TrEMBL record:
InterPro entries on file: Metal_resp_DNA-bind_regulator, Tscrpt_reg_PadR_N, WH-like_DNA-bd_sf, WH_DNA-bd_sf
Name this protein carries in UniProt: PadR family transcriptional regulator
UniProt-listed PANTHER family: PADR-FAMILY TRANSCRIPTIONAL REGULATOR
Organism superkingdom: Bacteria
Domain Transcription regulator PadR N-terminal positions: 8-81
Pfam families assigned to the protein according to its UniProt record, in alphabetical order: PadR
Length: 101
């Protein structure tokens, strides 16, 4: 799983969020290292929706524009948890190798 995908799923883990909120959350989670453009985000959300990892939670009109909220599915939660465990194993292995002999 690529870092932007991981961060998008992480941003949606706590509660449903609209696109701009996801962009802000990803930037905060990555401490500014990852900044998603709207086109990139919505392409990723479409792909993640097709994969069954996220789904539309609700839509609302704000200032005449449609705001769509997304949330993780149970499959998305499982995929994120699996990725967290994988990354933790890799980080633990790296930490062991960095320790002085």
């Amino acid at each position: 799983m690529q870092e932007p995908t991981f961060l998008i799923l992480t941003a949606l883990a706590a509660e449903p969020c609209h696109g701009y909120g996801v962009i802000q959350a990803v930037e905060a989670l990555s401490e500014g290292d990852v900044r998603l453009r709207p086109g990139t985000l919505y392409g990723a959300l479409d792909r993640l929706t097709e994969q069954g990892l996220v789904e539309v939670d609700r839509e609302e009109a704000v200032d005449g524009r449609l705001r769509r909220y997304y949330r993780l599915t149970s499959s998305g939660t499982a995929a994120l948890a699996q990725q967290v465990a994988r990354m933790r194993r890799h980080a633990d292995a790296a930490e062991l190798r960095l320790r002085p002999a």
